[in-house]
Amino acid sequence: MEISLFMSKIDRVWLWRFFAALSLFLHSPICYSDKAPNYSFMRDATGSPTTSYYDYIIIGGGTAGCPLAATLSQNSSVLLLERGGAPYNNPNITRLSAFGAALSDLSEASPSQRFISEDGVINARARVLGGGSALNAGFYTRAGTKYVRNMGWDGGLANESYSWVEAKVAFQPPMGRWQTAVRDGLLEVGIVPNNGFTYDHINGTKFGGTIFDHNGDRHTAADLLEYADPNGITVLLHATVHRILFRTRGTTKPIANGVVYRDRTGQAHRAYLKEGSSNEIIVSAGTLGSPQLLMLSGVGPSAQLQAQNITVVMDQPHVGQGMYDNPMNAVFIPSPVPVEVSLIEVVGITGEGTYVEAAGGENFGGGGSSGSGSSARDYYAMFSPKATLLESNSMKLSSAQPFQGGFILEKVMGPLSTGHLELRTRNPNDNPVVTFNYFQHPDDLKRCVRGIQTIERVVQSKAFARFKYADMPFEYLLNLTASTPVNLRPPRSGPGASLPPSAEEFCQHTVTTIWHYHGGCVVGRVVDGDYKVIGIDRLRVIDMSTVGYCPGTNPQATVMMLGRYMGVKIMRERLINK
């Protein structure tokens, strides 16, 4: 009895010291000598071994995959497979002044892969290390505390994970006159209080963070690989995973044990998990890529898999279901005075189901690294990158004139409308068929209308007066914007087509994406609360495909946080199971 009690005390002391040391290890921002872009562990997949073995294989070096890989490398061997190249030394990615150029690049080497949903909305998916953080408008803002609770995340660890991310990639924007006028206009029309500069998601008006530093250089999720242990990680570029391998004989359920990937020459390679029950394959291929890869690997709706002659490993009807994209509508506002170049900096969190943001400036976007500048038509590519798909001379400003003005946009929160994804072919390089069903739910359309009405009040506010022509009523601005085709949806027709559109018509006919699409492997349907694929061992999905409701105004901060957060949780599990 005394010996047992003595041992119990020793156990308690040992466990306390163990978890204290573990907490310090996991939560300290350890930095190694490797700095972006000169990672010693990053190389092209061409020439990589035909067969290799790792503790963790992560598919997709995107917004979630990079922080996840960096974290897991600290006590395990990690292979990170990215189908694209590196984001460094490409000014069309790295420079704020070139924003939009990468999204308009339709070449096979582009860091962006164009897709068009069945709704007729032009969209893009990342094909580059760093994922969407290498292409987006850079706005950095956390999810709300209620969202964190609803997702079942530990608030303390979530905050620590956000801070870990922010130490590398988040900055305070310059907050010029245009953005300040939009902020003051939002406050004037009642989007209060003024929350100043903050990363936090709070009702009212605020300046959020940005991943562009004060020199206008972008910092992506790939920069989080500076946290990685160079001895514990291998990053392979231009490595496209074609399928996940499973062991099914003699098991009660499939066990993921490897992947087949091809390099840029088409050479096939295989990577397997080392022996050990804690070793896993983690899919972080994005909202389109993750459900697509599960289906290509035999996990998905059986009828759809059989139609593509794919052997069914597990019939999972929810894979590819629950696809969401937040509708975005922007109003173009010509300005009588110059407007500074800015992407998203200010946001009005209205509490009415919509977020209002702004961007503006001249001589950037469409010109890319050539420095040729941007017209209003080119600039619209920021929100709906159409490149050569659409040509329009209906904008009332000459494309030869420099752009002067900006956009105020609204994004519908949620959304409530839902769609689905299906395989088009068995080639992972081909886009799947995607339908989002914008405004299918009537509340989404009502929210959009309220957002447009808020924009109207901001444009007509005293605070914004110097940035609009006094003789341009809001109806004219709606008609001006609606006259430029920004999507492939049917144009307005009928007797009233020449009249200014109603707010409802404007929402329906000018809807574009803000690239916050999500779903397809939603928690509770395809993965459990620990992001493990339900019914399969040693396989997780960790990215935006697991989300059924978009976090906050812009999701990238939360996706990077989730990569770090889950990396810490998985490390804890591994240490406990040893």
Automatic annotation (TrEMBL):
* Matches recorded under InterPro entries: FAD/NAD-bd_sf (IPR036188), GMC_Oxidoreductase-Related (IPR051871), GMC_OxRdtase (IPR012132), GMC_OxRdtase_N (IPR000172), GMC_OxRtase_C (IPR007867)
According to its UniProt record, which cofactors does this protein need?
FAD
The superkingdom of the source organism is: Eukaryota
Keywords carried by this UniProt record:
FAD, Flavoprotein, Signal
Q: Does the keyword Signal apply?
A: yes
| Glucose-methanol-choline oxidoreductase N-terminal domain segment(s) | 286-300
Q: Which family does it belong to?
A: Belongs to the GMC oxidoreductase family.
Q: What is this protein called?
A: Glucose-methanol-choline oxidoreductase N-terminal domain-containing protein
Encoding gene per record:
A08p041420.1_BraROA
